Amino acid sequence: MRAAARRPGWWGRFGVSLLASLLVAEGAARAVAPHLEPPGEWPRADYAAHEKGLALRAADLDLLVLGSSVVGRDISPARLRELGGPAVGYNYWLAGSPMRSIDLLTTDVLLERVSPPVVLLGLTMREFTDGPSSRDHLDALRQSPGFLDASGRMGWIDRLDAGLQGASALARHRTDFRDPVQLVHNIQAEPLVPERLGADGYLLDRGGDDLADEPAAHVAQEQAVMAGYEVNPDDVEALRHLLGELTGRGIRVLVVNLPVTERFVAMADDGRADYAAYLRQVRSSAEEGGAAWLDAMDRPWPDHLFADVNHLNDQGAAELQPLVLDALLRLPPTG
Amino acid sequence: MTFNSLPYVAFLAVVTGAVWRLRHRDQNRALLAASYLFYGAWDWRFLALLVGSTVIGYTAGIALEGTDDPARRRAIVVSRVALNLAILGVFKYANFFLSSAVAGLDAVGLSASEPSLRIILPIAISYYTFEEISYTVDIYRRDIEACRDPVAYGLFVAFFPKLVAGPILRPHELLPQIERPRLRPDGDRVLSALGLLLWGLVKKVVIADTLAQMANQIYARPGSQSGLGLALGTLCFAGQIYGDFSGYSDMARGAARLLGFELPLNFRQPYLSSSLTAFWRTWHISLSSWLRDYLYIPLGGNRRGLSRTMVNLLTVMVLGGLWHGAGWTFLIWGAIHGVALGAERLSGRAVDNTDAVARWRDLPRILATFTVVCLAWVFFRAPNAGAAWTIVVRIVTLAPGDTMWTAAVMLALLGSVLVVTDVVQRRIQVDPTEPEEARLGPALLRRPRPVLTGWLVGAALAALVVTSGGQPVPFIYFQF
Questions:
Q1: How would you label B383-405 residue by residue, b for 16+ Cβ within 10 Å and e otherwise?
Q2: Disulfide engineering: B211 pairs with which of A247, B77, B105, B240, CB 3.0-4.6 Å?
Q3: Mind listing the domains of chain A with CATH numbers?
Q4: What is the pLDDT of residue A30?
């Protein structure tokens, strides 16, 4: 060891080899990177789009809509305005989000920027599961530079990491490289088409308007999320926390149980029983939290109104808007 | 401030830089202050407990040495050990015994409401309590003299590289190093220390944390997993806990070496063991040797006949299980090892290959030992005994269900790194032609070929870049 370390040129050859190995790794990452979805400041592209969309309306926002992609597709602030609803609304939906993510982003970021008089919270049972996908969503949000920056939580370590990610494709795409199986899948996958958002944040389409045309991948994804379904107490607690934050600021809240297909409900292990448990807990949380409650599932929603198992198509959304508007107009004035 | 976080790297760099500018006695004072700062960063409230326990231990040691009266000596050692165990019992086991008692009353039809004690386990308490017990007992046995320097004794208890997850050090292993002036490490020792830190970090962040994701997902829903999937999850956990704990131990040794100390090995390639006897000589060595010296031998060891030996083995392993935590799963884990060790003793086939290189002909015994170890890991990892039993049954019956093939790929990739490095390290450690110091060093740094070393260090850094980011995952053994 001693002799080897002292040999002239040892450190030079060590350094060159070290540098070469790092360059090879970085080069390989850069070669693969064009085949992968470019990571942004936020976990998904729709967050960045929402950031821009909300900024344009922040000053005079009358209605903020929150929830997952289901509310993104089901409720259109622009359509509500046409029907006589709030003048300026924005739908800040977060694809695939559990209730914990919605609570975290709203309380730590959105409410620091906007103070709408009314918030509409559109929910389904999907937002109250604790599967790996929900946890990944929450972790990705918590750790994203966009969230850390917007919530004022970016410390020196995060800034260092953000700098590393800016300089290195290996660091930038680290989540892809951690899972070789998924990496191969991602390289072979078709490039993602960015979802089309309206100026009010509304999710303009889901790639099809007929339940029969629903991609098998979406069904499989939803089945994976709903496998082993149990109403997650942490998500219920997050709902209560969010309601407390909103009503504490004098914001009127409407909680809407959004329509889903029977097929979607059946994806939960105990189907209707799980749905009933979800409905009971969410409704009681809403009522105890001082929010108004609308159960859109009180009336039948035939399959021809859905684009897929849990998102309405244009016709379905058109039928939902008047129900929602009616509930919004019946909201009591602030105390 | 965990070892796998940037604040710790900065802390270690500052402490190392500062310590070597000081004289010996000031070095000890600075290290004690740094250790208390390190501990206080977890939770300042428990610093008083650590300091209080240190003061009592120091005083008891001097009192013990100051008397030759056997009755008084016995009274001091018994009261000191009893106090140690009482503190451990309150913080670590009170909730377990209360809830077990309530469950027991419920089972016989007597309704009892469980008192809601919210006792938080102070980090490191299991480690420093055992170290303090060994200090008092060793003085009682007249194996060592009492430490007269309160700073030195304080540092023996609180030395930060080993404080939160061991190794559990004996007084004779650390106190002389504290009391004598230490040599500033030369370039080679600094290099070997950095090598240990890097390799430990790779084992933790790259191997253990990656396998943990697989194991966690599989163990989260055991009912929907196939027998094969659960077996993969168990293998992932076996890799995770080894990478996590031995990675921590390597980093502890690396940090100590930078500060001029040498900590003993806590792991010696345990999964290459050809018997459970050999496994326990190579896994968490500091705990197993502590249990041997302060429990198994005082109980009579193997000197009082076969049946008493069996009872002693079972007692020690069950208590060793409970040391990890207050729960039936840990108790069963210890019992499995106790019964298996007893069976080995009865069969007379406990082959100890601790000091031999791994050979192909040993493979069947190694695999058999590893299977028993993994079976016991199911109980260690599962949330409760019922879930553990379900997992074992599903594995044994090859139950149908989901199989996470990503786990198989990651296991093949990362497990092979562990196996190859262990085989190489074992070969180096048992090579009698090597000097002692070289035997302890990692293979990479013993015969450092610059090109190979550069590529391996580069690969390790690239792997760390990929697997890092986000909140550091705590070490498993911090919770014990």
A1: eeeebbebbbebbeeebebebbe
A2: B240
A3: 41-154+190-329 (3.40.50.1110)
A4: 93
Q: Which of A131-135, B91-95, B116-120 has the lowest mean pLDDT?
A: B116-120
Give the pLDDT band (50/70/90) at residue B176.
very high
Percentage of chain B surpassing pLDDT 70?
92
Residue B42 pLDDT:
83
Q: Do B454 and A157 touch (CB under 8 A)?
A: no
> Could you say which of B217, B223, B454 has the minimum Cβ distance to residue A132?
B217
Does residue B472 surpass a pLDDT of 90?
no
- Ranges in chain A, pLDDT < 50: 1-4, 335
> From CA A79, how far away is CA B284, in angstroms rounded?
66
Give B398→chain A minimum CA distance, Å: 21
Residues of chain B neighbouring A178 (CB-CB closer than 8 A): 210, 466-467
pLDDT at B132 over 90: yes
Who among A14, A25, A168 is closest to B453 (CB)? Answer: A14
Mean pLDDT, rounded, of chain B: 87
Closest residue in B to A144 (Cα–Cα)? B470
> Is the ipTM above a cut-off of 0.95?
no
Cis peptide before B167 (omega within 30 of 0): yes
Q: Which residues contact B102 (CB under 8 A, 6 or more apart)?
A: B112, B113, B114
pLDDT at B437 over 70: no
Question: Which one-letter amino acid corresponds to residue A303?
Answer: D
Q: Which of B166, B143, B175 is nearest to B58 (CA)?
A: B175
Q: Chain B: give the shortest CA distance to residue A41, in Å.
A: 14
| Best B465, B467, B473 residue to mutate vs chain A (most A CBs within 10 Å) | B465
Tell me the β-bridge partners of A91.
A65
Q: Is B324 one of the catalytic residues?
A: yes
Q: In A, which residues are within 8 Å of B7 by CB distance?
A: 157
Determine the pLDDT at residue A20.
95
Helix (H, G, I), strand (E, B) or coil at A260: coil
Query: What pLDDT, on a 0 to 100 scale, did the predictor assign at position A144?
Result: 83
Look at residue B443 and tell me whether its pLDDT is greater than 50.
no
CB contact under 8 A, A25 and B459: yes
Tell me the three-class secondary structure of chain B, residue by residue. CCCCCHHHHHHHHHHHHHHCCCCHHHHHHHHHHHHHHHHHHHCHHHHHHHHHHHHHHHHHHHHHHCCCCHHHHHHHHHHHHHHHHHHHHHHHHHHHHHHHHHHHHHHCCCCCCCCCCCCCCCCCHHHHHHHHHHHHHHHHCCCCCCCCCHHHHHHHHHCHHHHCCCCCCCHHHHHHHHHCCCCCCCHHHHHHHHHHHHHHHHHHHHHHHHHHHHHHHHHHCHHHECHHHHHHHHHHHHHHHHHHHHHHHHHHHHHHHHCCCCCCCCCCCHHHCCCHHHHHHHCCHHHHHHHHHHHHCCCCCCCCCHHHHHHHHHHHHHHHHHHHCCCHHHHHHHHHHHHHHHHHHHHCCCCCCCCCCCCHHHHHHHHHHHHHHHHHHHHHHCCCHHHHHHHHHHHHCCCCCECCHHHHHHHHHHHHHHHHHHHHHHHHHCCCCCCHHHHHCCHHHHCCCHHHHHHHHHHHHHHHHHHCCCCCCCCHHHHC
- How do residues A130-159 score in pLDDT, each as one tens digit? 877 888 888 888 888 888 888 888 888 888
Q: State pTM to two decimals.
A: 0.77
Asked whether residue B440 carries a pLDDT value surpassing 50, the answer given is: no
Measured from the Cβ of residue B29, the count of other Cβ atoms closer than 10 Å reads 15
Angle CA B186–B192–B193, to nearest 5: 85
pLDDT-derived band of residue B439, with 50, 70 and 90 as boundaries? very low
